[in-house]
């Protein structure tokens, strides 16, 4: 029993010794960062202290002194930083899975033991610990080439919209709909105004879905990816992805968000219907409507 307790509460490096087999390993201990994380509304906009401890078992290499021939410590810390920058996570568990997948994508990494702790939730540390092996960590299948289509709100009732969209379906589509041309409720606080703007876009999306039910409302990255893999024309409900993505723009404007989404999703093209194309990093063109 004492060995079990020591293994459970010891450093992840001790776990590797308890597991079968011998392997070379590198470790990063007590790596502390601040990030926004948490499922509760009170945790939105709040940066919390996190501590990361990782041990990575690596494939044995011939002796040498070339830093480019090894899995370096920097690759572990870069995997942590890249995931914190890529997405906002509600749960430590999902953050740990994503970081483990990034580490195990390294050619020399064979197994990772990762512990993440929240440091600011009380007079204690709250944490999770996972063990993942190469080929076991959750990975994302590549999504196919696709288009992001920007539809300004005032054009959502254009009579030829269905035909124009049908002409673009040689690739899967994600439709970004601007809000209706109506005044929005006033808000003195910036975050409240941002959410009102997102909800206005979602109202417009649902209204268009009611008119063209073949457009499938999608909100999460999982729904977006699944729809693209299945040739679906999705109509984007932006709140979830925008609020959970550190790289999302603060400005809630359909054109700005369409340009960001096209870059974020790696779209092959951004098409703007009946309006000038926004500044974007992907190929873009205007299509009359």
Give the N-to-C terminal Cα separation: 72 Å
Q: Which strand order does the major sheet show?
A: 7-8-6-5-9-10
- Oligomer, anyone? single chain
- Mind summarizing the main beta sheet? 6 strands, parallel
Integer average pLDDT: 86
CATH fold-level topology of the largest domain: Carbamate kinase
CATH architecture verdict of the largest domain: 3-Layer(aba) Sandwich
How large is the share of residues in beta strands? 15-25%
Q: What would you call the structural class?
A: alpha/beta
User: CATH H level of the largest domain: which superfamily?
Assistant: Acetylglutamate kinase-like
Outline, from the CA principal axes? globular
Radius of gyration: 23 Å
List keywords for this structure.
about 290 residues; alpha/beta; GTP Cyclohydrolase I, domain 2; Carbamate kinase; 6-stranded parallel β-sheet; 9 helices; 10 strands; about 25% strand; GTP-CH-I_C/QueF; dihydroneopterin aldolase activity; Diguanylate cyclase; FolB_dom
Can you describe what's shown?
It holds the Pfam family FolB. InterPro entries: FolB_dom, GTP-CH-I_C/QueF. GO terms for molecular function: dihydroneopterin aldolase activity. The chain is an alpha/beta fold and 289 residues long. The chain folds into two domains: 132 residues, GTP Cyclohydrolase I, domain 2 (2-Layer Sandwich), CATH 3.30.1130; 141 residues, Carbamate kinase (3-Layer(aba) Sandwich). The protein contains nine helices and ten strands. The strands form two sheets. A six-stranded parallel β-sheet has the order 7-8-6-5-9-10. Strands 1-2-3-4 form a four-stranded antiparallel β-sheet, with helices on both faces. Helix 3 packs across helix 4. The longest helix is centred in the last third of the chain and has 22 residues. The chain is globular, with a radius of gyration of 23 Å. The model has no long low-confidence stretch (mean pLDDT 86).
